[in-house]
Specification:
The structure holds two protein chains of two kinds. Chain A contains 15 helices and four strands. Chain A has helices at 7-26, 37-61, 66-74, 84-110, 118-135, 141-170, 174-194, 230-248, 250-260, 262-267, 272-298, 309-319, 324-345, 354-375, 386-399, and strands at 27-31, 220-223, 226-229, 376-380. Chain A has a two-stranded antiparallel ribbon with strand order 1-4. A two-stranded antiparallel ribbon of chain A has the order 2-3. Chain A is globular and about 70 Å long. Chain B is α/β, with parallel strands linked by helices. Chain B contains 18 helices and 20 strands. In chain B, strands 6-7-8-3-9-10 form a six-stranded mixed β-sheet, with helices on both faces. In chain B, strand 19 (473-478) and strand 20 form a beta hairpin. The chains are: A mainly alpha, B alpha/beta. Chain A binds chain B through residues 21, 24-25, 28, 30-34, 248-253, 256-257, 260-261, 263-269, 379, 381-385, 389, and chain B through 16-19, 58-63, 70, 72, 74, 308, 310, 329-331, 334, 340, 348-356, 360, 364-365, 367-368, 373-375, 377.
Amino acid sequence: MSQQEPLEVKGLRKQINRGKNSLAKQFHLVRKSRMKLWQNALYILIGVVVALAIGAAILTSLDISAIDYYSDMFTIGLVGNAYPERAIENFLVSYVPLLITSLALALSFKMRFWNIGGEGQFLIGALTSAVIAIKFPGLNPYLMLLLMSVVAMLCSGVTGLAIARLKTKYNTNETLATLMINYIALYVVTFFGETKADWNFFLRTDSERPKFTSFTKMPFVEIGDFHLQISVLVTLLIATGIWFYLRYTKQGYEISVIGDSRRTATYAGMNVKRITLRTMFTSAALIGLAGAFTASSSGCISTNITNNVGWTGIIVAWLSKLSIPGIVLSSFLITILQFGCRSASSLYPSIDSHFADLLQGLILFAVLAADFFANYKVVRIMSAGEKQEEQHEDKKEVES
Amino acid sequence: MSDSEYAIELRHISKHFGSVVANKDINLTLRKGEILALLGENGSGKTTLMNMLSGIYKPDAGSIYIDGEKTLISSPEDALKAGIGMVHQHFKLINVFSAADNILIGSSKGSETHALLRKSRYSQVNQIIHDFGFELDSRKIVANMSVSEKQTLEIVKVLYYGAKTIILDEPTAVLTVQETRKLFEVLKKMKEQGHSIIIITHKLNEVMEISDRVAILRKGQYITTVNTSETTEKELTELMMGRKVDLEIERPIVEKTAPVLEIRNLSVKSDEGNIALDDVSFYLRGGEILGVAGIAGSGQKELCEAMAGLRKIERGVVLHKGENIAGASPEEIIAKGVTMSFVPEDRLGMGLAPSLSIADNVILKKYKQSKGFLLDKKRGAREAQEIIDKLEIVAPSVETPVRKLSGGNVQKVLLGREIAIDPNVIVTAYPVRGLDINSSYAVYDILNQQKKTGVGILFVGEDLDVMLALCDKIMVLCHGKLMGVVHASKASKEEIGLMMTGALNTVHQKRGKTAGIAKDSAIVEDEIIYQEEEVNV
């Protein structure tokens, strides 16, 4: 400290420094020993409750009963609905793409390949499958779905393959490459939605404004009044398949080893490049499939068809620590949240659907924070005679 | 300044990581102007304790007294202010900067950071280096420095920052015999100037040579401090282990076979594209252990990787039982019974997948052998259990992730797996790296047993005393060149030390015989030329 400094300034600075240091000195983070599953779940539950409490405060300030709102939200619009079957059907329609995308992302994350291009791969799948749907109307619905799926998976998979190839050959950054593909795909869809050129078969000819044409919908199995879409069954099969693949097959084993240590994988004679290509193809193809399913069940495409699953899927995959059963569960819960928020907000005209987005954000944030506190604890450094020491310091300062 | 007897006093220090107790109620004193050796097995908490002194970790409980005054150290900056400097095992230097800049950039005094871009800084820093009594050119770029020079720079750095107490974490692990001697002279000089020094090391002979007192930790607890002059290596070992041990390394005599591995004129490049191995020839017989000695970075890593098919062979022949395997894939080489286990500095980087279970790691080199699409999990579990039983690995179950095991057990898993594939050649680099005495001896036993069954072992090592006791022959590398092959029973440490620094070359010393070429070689001279051409294509 320089000598010209006036005494008051000197004292002030000392105080500031002491304040800063004492906080840092007294508390620090310590990693907890591994939590049991139910403990982890409890933390997350507390996080959700905190987020809901904040949401309730906002609702109350707008003169809306938080209890009513939340009960509407968590019953996802089932209560008091003349057609509860439709609500469940719609719920499943939101669940399917999120689940497949999260599973697919987990597959590449497990290999430490940071595929954040879920949005783009989804759009590519949706767009290419829509081409099939529009170009071949009148096909048998099952055959149609099959064809749409295959084309979407191939196109999206090849995109993923190309990015993986760039990575294995030139060691490009896959995070950037997949991110950029998102925007390219988004603008391609925008382009098809806007250009009124004659060749654009995506547009309806009977409409003045540019508008996507709609096409045949997804086949379903009727169970009483309930229409179970084929995609739900396929998705559950895929989830089981991926769980089995990662756990019991040689290829799944290779993915785990590469994710853990690339050098070890090479050393054990694995062809890391080929495995990277293969896995990234599978991952992108599955996300493309999610796109095809969504295009098929909505019977139309648009730029917001993804419902952000490419991003939400990343959160789901990490929250579940890349465990497949975990992903099935947490994507289910997040869909309830999203879907419930949307159906509840439609019942309260005084707040628009942005509140649903706000609440979603709050809850996800709280869940991530809860996850942090489940793994770390804040500890105060304990040492005998610390207080006397501080008093002593104070005395010295008074003297000076 | 207080006139306390102790430079540092630790009282009731404890540190936990999750449920693991790294340090429990430790009391330790460092007198002013003494060299204290800190001794303990792996996982006894030496490094954790020193990291708390240097501000990297914070103690959960207990207090630190410096010069008799209670001090809270919550960052490396605090430690520096308190006059404590640590020289880490892995140097913390900026490779592309000169020595002077590496020193000045970390300086906390504002006036000195201004000197950073001035030309005069070199002469200033040279003066400082000279004042401390070191030899080092302040203009030299770190990337061009030898390990010993880097270490000197680290020491100068902490001294320059005003450290009164210097902690050295295994400083001799990377040095040759001559360099170690030089370091010790420097340490003694520092002691005379009134500095206090804590040195962490595994090597008992060094402890006896350099230290005034020895503090011993065992399993995170403080055992005792003894005066070096009043103790023996044997007593120290017993204190460290908590029981009596036999320090002899066995060298069983086994009948040697024809060469299982013959390397002729091998040249390999490093990751940076420099020549890492230059025209190296040697051979390995079944039933012998051939040591590879050299200063760190003399081409040992590249040699191992070339043997395992992980690195491109630029030139030369690698003959395995009469068949050239230069250019074969790792998979093919594994299938021929050549195993390579390399323990890098971080100990987990190569050969193991740390987050996977022991069973999954054990099956790593065999998983393709089972038929079909599925992984043979049962086989992994069975063989993992066999290895655990045979090598007495301490592990809760075969499903435990490898990273949760202690260093010794991790290395046993690695070696156990390599042995389980019934190899005829074992290439092993630093298998006892960072291991305590007990685990090290377990590893030597494993290698000796393999040797008795007629396996040829290439042992890349660091500790010359161990190599002289364990190996049959030792080949010495210096800057990627072969300096000669000596019989361990006839060679001296000094001789090997000279060869390691390139001061002595015995390759062509004996008339009519070139070191590294077997009398009963399977390589015919014509064949070499032919095979070289093949490799070049």
